[in-house]
Fold this protein.
Amino acid sequence: MLKRAQWFDLARQLDWKFSYVDEVDVFPVETAGQPWLPREEWAGWDEPFRTTYTEYVNTQHEKEAALAAVQESAGRREDFAKLPREWLSAVKLHTATLPLAEFAAVVGNLRAARFGRTSAWRTTALFGALDEFRHTQIPLLLMQDLVAQDPQFDWTHRLYHSNNWVAIAARHLVDELLYGASAIEFAVATNFVFETGFTNLQFVGLSALARQVGDRMFEKMLGSIQSDEARHAQIGEPVLRTLVKHDRDYAQYLVDKWFWRSWLLFAVVTGFAMDYLTPLRHRTSSFKDFVKEWVVDQYLRMLEDVGLTRPWYWPMFEEALNNYHHLVYASAYTYRASVWFDLVVPGPDERRWLRQQYPDSWDAIDPIWERIGARWKVTDPDNDFGVHGTAIIGFCNLCQLVLCNGTPHKNGATTLQKDGQKYIFCSEPCRWIFEQEQSRYAGHKDVVKRVLAGEAPANLVAMLRGYFGLSFEDWGKDACGGKYPWATRTR
Amino acid sequence: MIPLYGFLEGDSLGLLILAREDDTLARLAERLQSAAELRVAPLKMPCVVVAGRTLDPEMTVAAAGLTPLDKFEVRGDDR
């Protein structure tokens, strides 16, 4: 029997010159991606894991066994019932946002497994597709068991099938990133930017917090998923290096576009969890510090290493790092019935901590919480709609998220009038992305345009029930019912 | 009614405000402040800024040239 070293390289790089068809017909530019290059240009493609199918199956089997053991010992309903309520909101946010996106990533990986330009790339992408199946199934399985005691966990599966505003924004990203991208754009956007650049935030940073909180099941689930991500993310860099060599401007455009789009998603999903939904006593560092450690330093090094520069909008990103997730959280709190998880008001101790962590921005944000806290002091406990917004919210025509970029002093929204249509964007980078590929984005209606077209109700409660798919049982409430020790009633 | 995107200084997000063509800009500022009162205390001297220009509070929405889905800001002074 041949030893691994004797057959592996031949089997892994099993590409040949086609004789019956043209190479461009086998790998059309629409699905393989641009620039279209002959196979010789991809011949040096490599990634460090160099896994065989047997090794893949054996490793995954071990991971599954380890996870099952943790589920048996720490993943029962009574284990979740012991966890802080606000932390469970972080779990609900994560588990609703990611699993069905992971399923879309199966499709993206399968496209690369067919249209990637070398067999080694295609094989690694096939493993990636199998990974993403697993990442879909694990949270669905674990959270399904909790639906009976808390209907908000049902949103693990429901979110992407709804017209909830978060789902509209998430689908807008996922459809393009995972369903609509060519193999090359998928490798740069998903494998390099999203997975190498950002997922450590969620799968390492949040996993560490889960450990602090005592949520062993969530910690192990994230850790197990990250070990897969770390492998298939390696597809990105060699694809990007080839792209830089042949079309540097396009490579720079793709990484800049997807860094901004990925950032907005993680700012919400991870930013909420780290700075608001993790109990203060368990926090080890701020979201900003996690981003600096796990995203900024590492990502900029990687960009430089492949011959690219930091995005043109970097000063706006740095401003957003101090403000954006805070402004989205404050907005979401005052429209919490529009989401499927409960939120909390940061009390005096939390606000003191936030001021220490965000000395450049918190003073402008704090008055919003002062005002909200004052409202609770004159509102009966559990009267959630006494401390809730009612006006219609504006949404960005690119990212589909609320118009929360910039600072409280100066919102970063910007407009565009083109071909007789008016558009609004939360930020200059969102407008820039839209303008680069207007035909791709222009036909999509945000929530406001759906309301104005009569496709969605304008009344808030009608929208929550009839359009966002929520009901009183599962829509978001104040996690403490407004009964905070610092909120002494003044009437 | 004209739907406009309103941004109040001190607030965390932009809101959709329904205005009438004959509303004064002072009234428009009131509408936005009322919609955002849960998060932002009333400004002492609110002024309406459109396309970087501070406009006369007695000017109407129509005279200010605001049409559906335009953007306006309400700020606490006339910077």
Summary: The first strand of chain A starts at residue 392 and ends at 393.
